[in-house]
Design goal:
Radius of gyration: 14 Å
Shape: globular
Helix content: over 70%
Number of helices: 6
Distance between the termini: 19 Å
Number of strands: 0
Strand content: under 5%
């Protein structure tokens, strides 16, 4: 993770926009992606980082997350990226286990899109 992305996480945490445990969870996910060879920078993962932190924090607040009208389009887009969907589901399972906040399907789909974009912006030799 580059310094700019680390700063994004720090600002979310220090401003109170997300709980410390959410920031820690997302940091672990980003570190894991980087360890797998993905290019994890502000440019490639900034939106993924913000989206995941805010979604998890809303879930911990008990705020319902609406299903999006674009869910079918997103699912169709993800059909070509089964590894991104599998990774998003794994993140949701870990969020449920560690935070008590499983992601609803619409959030898993959006996370999958972010992960698919991240994979496309990473060196091809590291794709699984």
């Amino acid at each position: 993770m580059d310094d700019q992305l680390a700063l994004r996480v720090q600002l979310f945490r220090e401003s109170g926009q997300v709980r410390p445990e959410v920031a820690a969870f997302v940091t672990e996910e980003l570190d894991s992606l980087a360890a797998e060879g993905h290019t994890v920078t502000e440019a490639t993962a900034g939106m993924l980082t913000s989206h995941l932190m805010m979604a998890l924090d809303r879930l911990l607040d008990g705020t319902p997350i609406e299903e999006f009208r674009t869910d079918e389009q997103v699912a169709a887009e993800l059909a070509g990226h089964p590894e991104a969907v599998a990774r998003a589901r794994a993140v949701s399972l870990r969020a449920e286990r560690e935070l008590g906040a499983p992601l609803p399907d619409s959030e898993i789909n959006f996370l999958g899109l972010h992960l698919a974009v991240l994979a496309q912006n990473s060196p091809a030799s590291h794709h699984s």
